[in-house]
Write a structure and sequence with these properties.
The protein is mainly alpha-helical and 144 residues long. The protein contains seven helices and two strands, in the order H-H-H-H-H-H-E-E-H. Strand 1 and strand 2 form a beta hairpin.
């Protein structure tokens, strides 16, 4: 899915010493994430993005917590906290407010597609990626 590759790409470029200021690919990735942030809080991408090879939002512009986590990590590694932390705060708040009483996050849409038509369900994604994103948020965003 497009979000996962943006997150991985932004992290990889940052690890190679690239920044928002010196790398067009990072700026384009950040621009895509800003433009696809639904309701100014989170992200949601349909599995149809894979076979159609273009970004397609979830039906009804719903948000997906795993994809929100992916986008949040990508933005954090792009240096978004230094430029404008507002979209980060909104995504972080969405993730925290979505956590259930037992500590889990709700299961949502399929987040994996194989060979453009096989939808994959990764049961652990719903907890791994939101928790990872929240840990990265605490690491990268200074507390007030």
């Amino acid at each position: 899915m497009f979000h996962l590759w943006r997150m991985v790409s932004l992290r990889g470029l940052a690890a190679a010493g690239k920044t928002y200021n010196n790398c067009l690919a990072i700026r384009r990735g950040v621009e895509f994430l800003h433009n696809s942030q639904g309701d100014d809080t989170g992200w949601g991408e349909s599995w149809l993005s894979n076979p159609k090879e273009k970004y397609i939002p979830l039906e009804g512009n719903r948000l997906n917590l795993v994809q929100t986590a992916w986008a949040l990590v990508g933005l954090l590694h792009s240096g978004q906290a230094k430029r404008d932390p507002t979209p980060l705060h909104k995504a972080e708040k969405l993730l925290i407010n979505s956590q259930m009483e037992d500590g889990d996050f709700p299961q949502q849409e399929v987040t994996g597609v194989f060979k453009k038509n096989g939808m994959l369900h990764y049961a652990d994604y719903r907890n791994i990626f939101p928790l990872w994103a929240l840990a990265e948020y605490v690491r990268w965003v200074p507390l007030p």
